[in-house]
Amino acid sequence: MTGWETSERVLESGGFESRQRVLVAEPVVEASEAGARTLGVTYWQAVDRFTRGGIRASWTGGGGKLKLLGGATLLTFGPPELSFEGGLVSCRHAIQGGLLALRAGGSVSLAQRPEGDQQELSVTVEEYLPRLAARAGAPPWTGMLYAKVQSPFHAAVSRRYFELLLRSRNA
Amino acid sequence: MNVTVFGATGVVGRALVPLLGKHELTAVSRTARDEPGARWVVADAASGDGVGAALEGADVVYYLVHSLGAGDFEEQDRIAAETVAREAASAGVRQIVYLGGLGADGPDASPHLRSRRETGQRLASAGVPVTTLRAAMIIGKGSAAFETILGLVKRLPVMVTPSWVSTPTQPIALDDVTQYLAGVCANEAAYGEGYDTGGPEVMTYRQMIERIAALLGRKPAIVEVPILTPYLSSLWLNLVTPVNASVARPLIEGLRNPTIAREERIRKLLPLELTPFDEAARRALA
């Protein structure tokens, strides 16, 4: 696993974009519905593993909830939107709300795509409005919880996710 | 083609035997039987008794044996697989077909899943090409996992469930998995290959409970609690379902990890219209 990168920026819309990626020599998942679904399932598994079961995803037909200790709903997601065309394999979930979202909007996408002669694995959160981030015009310290806790947590989970994906491919 | 089926009296074996009717069939059981459709022989893969005789002249061997329920099931499965692998190589068998468990391997895999993986490796250890099909829960009458869920639905109007009920899984109909098993018989493209087999729908165990309950005209209340160990869960299942705790515990330990197909190569090898979950459950309930 090489090419680890993590970046974050605030978009003109006010939404946050966060992206992590690594490069691998071979595709980790097949370009199929099963492969795309594996990207999503493995990500939620990484959240579970990283928090030792403290934060788990719970799914129903209409979507999922990320729950803290089986109680508080941190984020709610729409059902997986699976794609596997033109070398891109991806699983996207719309963010629908929860304690950590200021309001519904944005998405989290797990993807595998060709990058030169390698494959890029990525986690991209787009147009997300985090409740813990500083609001426009507010003092920066009001966003400390997001900057010092949620954002690094997300990047660490992404790293664990990439490791899990690679490990499961090698199994 | 001469085909020998170990585990012919199990849930999968019984459904598979009629699909292999065009072959010369030897069905293996640990106790004497005489049922139509096959030549029945007595053998015990764990002890090795009768295994050599059961494999005489066999071209293809189905290995549908497990020791779930025994305290040392991992060791017993290992020994049984090595015995059959060795005897199959001696008998000139061309292919062993094995039904293993679905789910990513790794250090946190359950003992049951690890044992299923190791069984596949031991079967391949003597050089006979093994075709491995991996399945999650099989929806069919008598399937231990399905009967566990059914027992819960039938007996409990209110369920206090551990967090594994939110784990995604991809159950497959008994009819579908047996068609896949029959389809790889003597199929050279499948020699030495492993395939994930899953049904057409991915769902959580909670959704599965709710859908089976709906088919039975019930609506149980499900209360999910974050702390309920596999040991406690298995004791509880032993109380409220017909499934023994020694069988339930290894199954429950495996439910923490997602069991979904990671690839679909089997669908290209054997195009098959997969049975929807509700239809598979209806057949199992009939």
Question: Could you explain the architecture of this structure?
Answer:
The complex is a heterodimer of chains A (171) and B (286). With 171 residues, chain A is an alpha+beta fold. Chain A has helices at residues 33-50, 144-170; strands spanning 2-10, 16-24, 55-60, 63-68, 72-77, 81-85, 88-97, 107-115, 118-128. Chain A has one domain (2-170): Alpha-D-Glucose-1,6-Bisphosphate, Chain A, domain 4. Chain A is built from two helices and nine strands. Chain A starts with a strand and ends with a helix. The model of chain A has no long low-confidence stretch (mean pLDDT 86). With 286 residues, chain B is an alpha/beta fold. Chain B has eleven helices and 13 strands. Chain B has helices spanning 11-16, 51-55, 73-90, 111-123, 144-155, 174-183, 205-215, 230-240, 245-253, 265-269, 277-285, and strands spanning 2-6, 24-29, 39-42, 60-63, 95-101, 130-135, 138-139, 158-161, 168-169, 172-173, 194-197, 203-204, 221-224. In chain B, helix 4 (111-123) links the parallel strand 5 (95-101) and strand 6. The interface between A and B is medium-sized, with 26 and 25 residues.
**Radius of gyration of chain A in whole Å, from Cα?**
16 Å
Helix proportion range of chain B: 25-40%
Largest sheet of chain B: 7 strands, parallel
Order of helices and strands of chain A: EEHEEEEEEEH
Low-pLDDT residue intervals, each spanning 5 or more residues of chain A: none
Reported for the largest beta sheet of chain A, the result is: 9 strands, antiparallel
The low-confidence runs of chain B, each spanning 5 or more residues with pLDDT under 50, are: none
Distance between the termini of chain A: 16 Å
Total helical elements of chain B:
11
Taken from the alpha-carbon principal axes, the silhouette of chain A is globular
What's the total number of strands of chain B?
13
Instruction: Give the strand order, joined by hyphens, for the main sheet of chain B.
Output: 3-2-1-4-5-6-11
The overall number of domains of chain A is 1
